[in-house]
Structures are given as structure tokens and as C-alpha cells.
Amino acid sequence: QVKLVESGGALVQPGGSLRLSCAASGFGFSNYAMEWYRQAPGKQREFVARISSSGTMAYAYFVKGRFTISRDNDKNTLSLQMNNLKPEDTAVYYCHRHPGDYWGQGAQVTVSS
Length: 113
Prior knowledge:
Layout: E1 3-7, E2 11-12, E3 18-25, E4 33-39, E5 46-51, E6 57-59, E7 67-72, E8 77-82, E9 91-98, E10 102-103, E11 107-111
Parallel strand pairs: 2-11
Antiparallel strand pairs: 1-3, 3-8, 4-5, 4-9, 5-6, 7-8, 9-10, 9-11
């Protein structure tokens, strides 16, 4: 079965950095694009970043220059390096397999002074 497990969520101060990880299993990880989404209270789940099977990256405009998505196909892991965090980045961050309807349980990221 497909399983995605996020980790690394934390409380950080504005301007701080955090690295999220997603451990994937149950499918051929290297053959799929992987994505990060996030959902803040009262808002719809929104796209954050995508990395293709070949390593091509795409980002939502609001994280360009601050976040970096990466993958390690040998370890079946997806990562999101988040720098210069802002309060509006506060959300539950989800790992997602693309295509498909497979999601992780989410990792809470709170950016607050």
C-alpha cells in the first residue's frame, strides 16, 4: 500500500528555517512526481512545490526564493527546505504523490514570535 509519512514540523520564529521530510513506501517512488501542499486554518489546501521524476522543480509564487523541494530516490524521501519563514506560512504541510490521491498525515508548521 502507498504510504506517505511527513516529519519535521515545528514551531519557529519568523525568519527562521525548517526542513520537512516525507518518507514514501508502497510504490515506485522514482517514477512519480512528488508535491508539497499546505492548508492553513480556514483556507483551502494549496499547492506549494513539485518535483518531477527527473528533478524538475516548480513552486507556488509565494514561496519562490525561500523554499526548495528535493528528493532522494535511493532513500525514497521527499524534502522541503523552508527558509525565511513568515507567519503566513503557518499551516499543515502535506506530502502528495502525483498523479494519485495519496496524501501523508501532515506536519504542523507554526511560524510565530
